[in-house]
Amino acid sequence: MGLHFEKVTQQHINIIFTWLAQDFVSEFWDNTQAHKDDILNFAAGRKVPSNYADGKYHYWIASFNHEPFAMFMTIQETHKDCDIGQEKLSLLSKSGNTYSLEYLIGNPQYWGKGYGAKTLSEFIYYFREYVDPKGDTFWIDPATDNPRATPVYMKAGFKHAADFIMKGECSGRDKYHHWFIRKFEPKISIYPITIEDYPLVQNMARFYVYDLSRKCGNLSSDWSLPENGLYESFDFKNYFTDPLRKVYLVKVYDELAGFALLNQATEDPSNTWNMGEFFIIAKFQGQGIATRVAHKIWEITPGRWEIPVIPENKKALIFWEKAITKFTDGAFDQTTKEVTYDEHQPKRVIFAFDTSKSRNLHSN
Predict the structure, then answer these.
(1) Spatial distance between the Cα atoms of 71 and 220, rounded to a whole number of angstroms
(2) Pairing of strands 273-280, 304-309
(3) Quick check: 171 and 226 in contact, CB under 8 A?
(4) How many domains, in total, are found in the chain?
(5) What are the distances in angstroms from CA 163 to CA 79, 125, 157, 259, 282?
(6) In CATH, what number is assigned to the domain containing residue 151?
(7) Tens of pLDDT along 108-118?
(8) Predicted local confidence at residue 25, as pLDDT
(9) How far from the centroid of its chain's Cα atoms is residue 158's Cα?
(10) Helix, coil or strand: residue 352
(11) Which residues of the chain have a pLDDT value below 50?
């Protein structure tokens, strides 16, 4: 398909207003003068304020072989939007940005020919590639009495989240609407770092210790908060100087998200790698990011692995068992052993598995 997307310009105004005036469009779309004025304002570069959604809408034209046939409206949703509602507020992206879409095929000659879902999907990919790479959550909310919309959106990868009554001064107010969501996994970068980044890891490690103190703080007074109010971590410099160790930094999009420190101090000498320290900051926890990071590390560092976990750290036990099960299809061993490096709690639950075998399983 020769699809092309671009921002609405003044050359598109006549055809857009022609679309909005059609009965099959105005039934579901806002054809008020305020909306038209906002489109004109956008096309002119928004040089003056707008009262229509505070001028936050962006307008886009979709063309096929240079023929305009559809329009999109996009608006970024944030926690600052007081009328967003608690349910939607809870489903805002925690890793990137969230956008609401409105979608109109104004030329009926493009109906029933497969353009609907294809154009919507292609627009989202275009938007994430060229407009906002951090856009990873998209909403669309057709009226429930618009039966043509639902199958198009679901075919384009949207999933039904809820139904609601539209409120506010907008088209479709006081009518029931479906609420559909399409989510993308945030971009994760994992890369080795050098001694120059040692202070960065030590700084993040303060928060790592704070996180661990919530689960293991009762095991020893070593977890007490120092008098200066700053948690201290073990010195991790040897991870940067020992050639048998590895340090990986984690970013979500372009934001620091954590680290993984690998060593070869395994309890079983037949194993190669031990996950010495693993940390994802609180902002990115509970979103599947840690699992993706762990899987990526096992893919790029193959061998026989051990993951030791303090028994009191119940959350970590659940996480590692699920992550390892998914990666190895359940092919791992789990034992409880006593270690020599922790006098306060020598017991460790140790997960052992071979990623060189699991990689083939995981890639199929």
Answers:
(1) 62
(2) parallel
(3) no
(4) 2
(5) 20, 26, 18, 40, 31
(6) 3.40.630.30
(7) 999 888 899 99
(8) 86
(9) 15
(10) strand
(11) 360-361, 363-364
CA end-to-end span of the chain, whole Å? 30
Strand order in the sheet with 304-309: 188-192, 246-252, 255-263, 273-280, 304-309, 347-354, 333-338
Same domain, 90 and 154: yes
Indicate whether 101 and 209 sit together in one domain: no
Q: Domain of 250?
A: 188-363
Say how many C-beta atoms besides its own lie within 10 A of residue 42's C-beta: 19
Both tokens of 25, joined, read 């469009």
Instruction: For residue 254, give the DSSP letter.
Output: T
**Are residues 168 and 208 located together in one domain of the fold?**
no
pLDDT in tens, 61-70: 999 999 999 9
CB 20 within 8 A of CB 70: no
Give me the pLDDT at residue 360, please: 47
Q: Can you spell out the DSSP letters for 136-194?
A: EEEEE--BTT-TTHHHHHHHTT-EEEEEEE--SSSTTTTSEEEEEEEE-PPPEEEEE--
Cα torsion 143, 112, 118, 106 to 10°: value is -60
Name residue 158's amino acid: F
Side chain identity at 260, as an amino acid letter?
A: A
